[in-house]
């Protein structure tokens, strides 16, 4: 499959393609502003996570992270960026930022 085909499928899975595009545009813009540039595969991984967050928010599905110490090595910059993006999606638990931060932290290694 192509990047565009994968992107379209992920967007549709979110249940709100327009909102998905808005969140992803903000995520990419904010990341680049912070000097984080996503490889295409990383961008699709982030997109898949964002689509799932949107779906979880809409359906009221929440999860929490029991051991936040697992994320001790994630930089505060990545956590703050993830928190800003998560703040766009209503109905999700604040712990979502920990999982989202991994996408940004990994992309920093490029």
Automatic annotation (TrEMBL):
<dbReference type="InterPro" id="IPR020044">
    <property type="entry name" value="PRD_EF0829/AHA3910"/>
</dbReference>
<dbReference type="InterPro" id="IPR036634">
    <property type="entry name" value="PRD_sf"/>
</dbReference>
<protein>
    <recommendedName>
        <fullName>PRD domain-containing protein</fullName>
    </recommendedName>
</protein>
<dbReference type="GO" id="GO:0006355">
    <property type="term" value="P:regulation of DNA-templated transcription"/>
</dbReference>
